[in-house]
Design a protein that fits this description.
By secondary structure, this protein is mainly α. The chain is 70% helix and 2% strand. It has helices at residues 2-29, 34-59, 69-77, 85-104, 106-113, 117-132, 134-141, 143-159, 164-180, 203-231, 238-253, 265-271, 283-298, 300-309, 312-334, 341-353, 362-377, and strands spanning 65-67, 260-262. Strands 1-2 form a two-stranded antiparallel ribbon. Helix 4 packs across helix 10 (203-231). The longest helix has 29 residues, at 203-231. It is globular. The N and C termini lie far apart (74 Å).
Length: 397
Amino acid sequence: MFHTVVAGVIAAITGFASSFALVIAGLVAVGASDSQAASGLFALCLATGITCIVLPILMRVPVSFAWSTPGAALLVAAASTTQDFAAATGAFLVCGALIVLSGLWPALGRAITSIPKPIASAMLAGILFPICIAPVTAAIEQPAIAIPMVLVWLLLARLAPRWAVPAAMLVAVVGIAVIAGPAVLGSDAVVPRLEFVAPVFDPFVIVSLGLPLFIVTMAGQNVPGFAVMSTFGYQLRPRPVLVTSGAASMAAALTGGHAINLAAITAAIMASPEAAPDPRRRWIATVSSGVVYLLLGVGAGLAAAIVQASPPIIITAVAGLALLGALVTSISTALEAPAHRITAIGTFLVTASGVAVAGIGSAFWGLVVGGVLMLWLRPAVAPSPPEPIVGPHDHDD
C-alpha cells in the first residue's frame, strides 16, 4: 500500500513541477492578470485533484487526469490572437463543452481523432517549436540561470529522466529567488484564491483558440491517454472519462483554467506494475495523486508569484525542456509517411509562424493549409501493374 501511495505522490509532483510554469505563462499570454493566472492554476489543481479522486473510486481503475500541457503551449503561441482574458475564458468554456459533447456523441470524438496524423502532429509540433528553442535563447540572454538549468536537466536526463525537468525547474526557482529576493512573498497573488472570470464569447477567439485547444487536447492528450491505459490492460469507456473531464474543464474555465484531460506520461507511473503488482489495487495510486494535487493547489499563488518575478525567457526555457520529448514525438509522427511530408512541413511552418489572419491564429490556419495540401498533393490512383510476359522457358513443363 505504501509503495502504491508513493507512486501517486511522485506522479502528481512530477506532473505539477514539469509544467506549472508553462500554464502560468500561457494564461498570462492570453491576457490574464497575476491574480487571474494564480486562480487559473489553482482551479486546474482542484479540477485535476477532484477527478483523480472521484472517478477512480467509482470505476476502481487507475484513470488519472492532468491539465492540457499542449493546450498551455497553444496559449503561449496564441499571444498575438487575444489579450482579452474574458474572451479566452469563453474559448476555454467552448473547449470543455466540446469535450463533453465528444463523450455524449461519439461521432464527434471519432471525427477529431481521425484528423490525419501528419496534419495533427505537425500542428502540435508547430505550436511546440517556438517554446522548445527558448533554452537556446535563454542561454544567451540569461546565462547565469539558464546554463546551470540546462546542465542539470542534461545530467538527469541521462541518470534519472523522470526528475530532469523538476530539477531544472528547481534550479530556475533558486535563480529567480536570488534575483527577485523576498519581494516575491509580498505579492497579493501568493494567497490562493479563485477569481471568477465572466466569459465573453468572441467568434474569432473561439475559432483561433477554442477549437485548436479542443483538437490538441483530444488528439495530443486524450487519445494517448486511452492508449497508455490500454497498454496496461485497462479498457476505459470513453463516455464517463470525456464527460467528467469536459465538465471539470468547464468549471475550471470560470475561474481561469484552460482544460484538463486524461494523463498519459504520469498515468504510466500509476497504471503500471511499478505502482502495484495487483492491477486491481493501482487505482489507489491515482487517488493519492489527486490528494497531492489538491495540496499543491494551495501553493498555486506562490508558484504564480515566482513565475511573474522571473524573466519571461526563463519560464519559457523550462517549458521548452519539458516539451522536448513531445516535440520529437510529434515531428517523428508528422514525417513518418513519405507521401505526406510536404503536407506536414507546410502545416508545421504555418503554425510555427505565429501569424494571425483576420484575427484568427496560426494553429487554425495550419490545419487549413495542411488539409488543402493533403487534398492537392494526394497521389493519383496508381495504374494496375501489367501482366508479366511469359517467355518460352518460364513454364513449369
